[in-house]
Amino acid sequence: MIELTKAQARMFILAKQGLLGSYRFSGKEGAYAYVRQAGCIQYDPVDVCGKNAELTLQSRVKGFKKTMLAELLYEDRLLVDYADKELSIWPAEDWPYFAPYRDRSRELGATFAGLAELEEEALAYIRANGPVSGDTLPIDGEIFWHSSMHWSGNWHKKSKAARSVLEQLYTDGTLVIHHKSGSRKFYDLAERHLEKTLLTAPFPCEDDRELQCWRVLRRIGAVGLLWDKSSPALLGIGINAEERKVVLSALESRGAIRSARVEEIRPQFYYHAEDEPLMQAVLAGTLDAKARMEFLAPLDPLMWDKALVAALWDFRYSWEIYTPADKRNYGYYTLPVLWGCDFIGRIEAVADRKSATLRVKNIWLEPDVRQTKRLQLSLDRALRRFAGVNDCTTVELCEQIKFGRNQQT
After folding, report:
1. Which among 27, 29, 126, 135 has most CB atoms closer than 10 A?
2. Using one digit for the tens of pLDDT, what is the confidence trace for 206-238?
3. What predicted TM-score, i.e. pTM, was given to this entire model?
4. DSSP letter string over 286-297?
């Protein structure tokens, strides 16, 4: 079993994720390649300085533009919006693996009185008129319904009928998202946008255990080095501690993953066997470790398991968007700041698109970070690049900005 220092573990994870050294991912092809590597990236509609999926890609993909993700989703149809790790974006080629999820959705949909008739009405309208949203589908009234996308019990709630029937057909796999206008989703028939061979492909796994293995392997690849511990990185798979150990053992026995120990951390870690050359480069000290400064998404794959980040980096981050203002330690929408192999702090920035200005409200540095000229130059470059991603031509450091200190314990 490989023995790693924390520094080596950090370097391996960052290099695997494309956050260290020269950019491994570039342009639209690079954006697609990264999503394939990660398996999925989380979607969130809040747009303060870019949506979460866009923020995830801009930190790894050289020359990334938001239009690239929209094209991959709604023109090239190489990616789809769907459930995985909560609401996510993942490669369309993985569609057959989510057959059990769609089957479960249809089973749950059958429990709602009157929904089947509304589905027929909605589908007839879409076939005749094309993509619709909950606001443009001419179905009035409300029904008792709850989305299986976030199913949390055998209970129904009253909701707008048009929106409900579209969401049900979407989770069933009958509809896909045609495009989005802001946070509003427009739906169309899946058969119009996904290949028939994909829609009719058989379920690739022999049983539920095999599916768990596929999904766990996928999440290990997203993080890079994942521990044998209850982890938010495995959210959505529905796996308990006993099942996790069985799956990890099965993956290791078939040679899909390898194990490692990290100093001072008790749980065992696992990484993809195909990443062995990268691991050996880390151990030999020959890895391209050129430092870059990147601003990470709140729901970035690197931040999925905050306990793991705390254990390896001694960096404690929480997304305070749902925290009452008077109880926040930092800001409404702060992003972790990564510089080389280290988390150096947090940034709060707002894209004012009317004036094409990126307004930096606050920067908080970690206690041991020194404000050097090198840091300032790296920050200036990162801010200019980040402004460009947000279609801003100017960066404004607000008068009240101050380099604070981490007050969390």
Report:
1. 126
2. 999 999 999 999 999 999 999 999 999 999 999
3. 0.94
4. -S-----EEEPP
